[in-house]
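FW: tagging you since you asked about this chain on Friday. Here's the raw sequence from the shared folder, copied in full. Didn't touch anything.
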Amino acid sequence: MYEFISGKLDSKQSDLMVIEANGIGYRLKISFSTYEQLPVVGTQVKVYTHLHVREDIFDLFGFAQKVEREFYYKLIAISKIGPKAALAILSGGSPADISNWILAEDAKTIAKTPGIGPTTAKRIILELKPKIEKELGTSGGGSLVADLGTSSIEDEAIMALEALGYARSDVYAKIRRIVEENDSELTTEQLIKKTLKK
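HL: got it, structure written out here
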């Protein structure tokens, strides 16, 4: 119903914000990730929205980025994951972070989200991993960088390994793990060598 709301940021909390647009104050539930991206109170802001309607409940959700809202839609499509749980998951990390955990089958990290147990974390991985792998397999280098937060060096390494016959989703998860484990920045060649050793 609402694509986005643009107006003055009236107030903000870690899970809530109010935007004033044309004399109307819109109260939106937000993730902590969105909260961190909000400007100071009193300035102009634009947030992407989702109106959740159920019986007598009308909740408006706000997202700083379109990619966060798209990931929210993926989460609420999973059985027993409602809007509140989806927002809690998005508060634990960016869509890129959560995609990394899913690809690495890191149920332990996902289960750290309040209200998300090990069983639910495994269900999230089971349902979303094939979708993320499919997106990685069909996206070009540019969208991979934009959507999942890889650097140009990481992207070059992924494409080089893909040319050698490796599945993009497999090398992506390994490369992200290597980058996180190394303090210093690696060259494309070093990254490829370390990935092949994994």
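FW: The CA atoms of residues 33 and 91 lie 5 Å apart.
HL: agreed, and The two ends are 47 Å apart (CA to CA).
FW: great, closing this out.
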